[in-house]
């Protein structure tokens, strides 16, 4: 990790209400994008996809807005489908990630940069 913002567990937990809403919107937009992609591909040459096309492009804009907001805050989205995020942090003088997944009440896990979700350990 390089010159990233580092979060304490308390700082990360304070962001969870807004982050949860953002992740829900990202998941919803992702679903629309995935469902509409094939339809758009088939019909774009004819009429741009009609109503599905508009929903698709709106979802892309929604996803982009929320992803940019996460990036600006220094939060790393690992999996949009499950709402898995990492917060850069430090633990015992080492760079680590605080790990949280949509639906969990609080940030209660961390992992070294080289292990990911499978290496989560309780705080």
Q: What would you report as the Rg, rounded to the nearest angstrom? A: 17 Å
User: What is the overall number of helices?
Assistant: 2
Compute the number of structural domains.
1
Secondary structural class? alpha+beta
Strand order of the largest sheet: 1-2-3-4-5
Name the average pLDDT: 88
Tell me what the structure shows:
With 123 residues, the chain is α+β, with helices and mostly antiparallel strands. It has one domain. It contains two helices and five strands, in the order ααβββββ. It is elongated and about 55 Å long.
What keywords describe this structure?
five-stranded antiparallel sheet; 123 residues; alpha+beta
Give the helix/strand layout:
Layout: H1 9-47, H2 50-73, E1 76-79, E2 84-91, E3 94-101, E4 109-111, E5 121-122
Antiparallel strand pairs: 1-2, 2-3, 3-4, 4-5
Helix pairs in contact: 1-2
Give a short overview.
51% of the residues lie in helices and 20% in strands. With 123 residues, the chain is an alpha+beta fold. A five-stranded antiparallel sheet has the order 1-2-3-4-5.
């Amino acid at each position: 990790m390089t010159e990233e913002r580092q979060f304490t567990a308390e700082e990360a937990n304070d962001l969870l209400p807004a982050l949860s809403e953002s992740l829900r919107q990202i998941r919803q937009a992702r679903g629309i994008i995935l469902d509409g992609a094939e339809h758009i591909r088939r019909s774009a040459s004819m009429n741009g996809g009609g109503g599905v096309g508009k929903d698709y492009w709106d979802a892309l804009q929604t996803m982009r807005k929320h992803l940019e907001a996460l990036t600006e805050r220094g939060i790393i989205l690992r999996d949009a489908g499950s709402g898995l995020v990492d917060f850069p942090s430090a633990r015992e003088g080492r760079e680590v990630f605080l790990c949280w997944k949509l639906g969990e009440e609080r940030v209660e896990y961390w992992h070294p940069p080289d292990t990911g979700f499978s290496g989560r350990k309780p705080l």
